[in-house]
Amino acid sequence: MTKFQFLIFSFMGVLLGACAISPQAINLNPSVTVNKTDIGQGRSLNLTVVDKRPTKALGSRGGIYSDTALVTIAGGPEEPIRQELIGALSGYGFQVIDAANADVDLTIEIEALGYQTQGSKYPLLIKNNILLKAICNKDGAEFISRYSANKEEEVLVMPTASQNERMINALVSKALSALVRDEKLLNFLKRG
Question: How far apart, in whole angstroms, are the C-alpha atoms of residue 163 and residue 172?
Fold first, then answer.
């Protein structure tokens, strides 16, 4: 092999390596702020968060190995979402407990939480979406509602884990904020 051929093969290896995009496991840390009130009046609430998505990856970062360049949530989304909702609902005066005999049962199902890159040239379009379903049971009555958020962002370079973390956390925070500010849901939770 000549020196020239070695340089060509080395250059090709660098190019192919640049096309390979590594997977990312991001930390979910949504933030929801509520105006503290006592609408819950100390009623006990059993809160469950269930991930109903068919796949646990948010999506692929793209590249030639897109099947393995996945974006996931480290530890899963259920507990970070549950903890943020506990804080918000406690701020409304509900007492969140782990008990089947609570005054109210509230189940949040994560139906969608996605990450998608579009395009093969820069700028790339990053599309994120979330869909939550709230199922509330109280005294034989049931209330069901869905909360969604979508976000698109153009990027000039492939986002880092911290950039993807920022995008996903903003998206989840938006959907959770809509949930805890839903007057119909709150009225169902607080009625005697």
Answer: 14
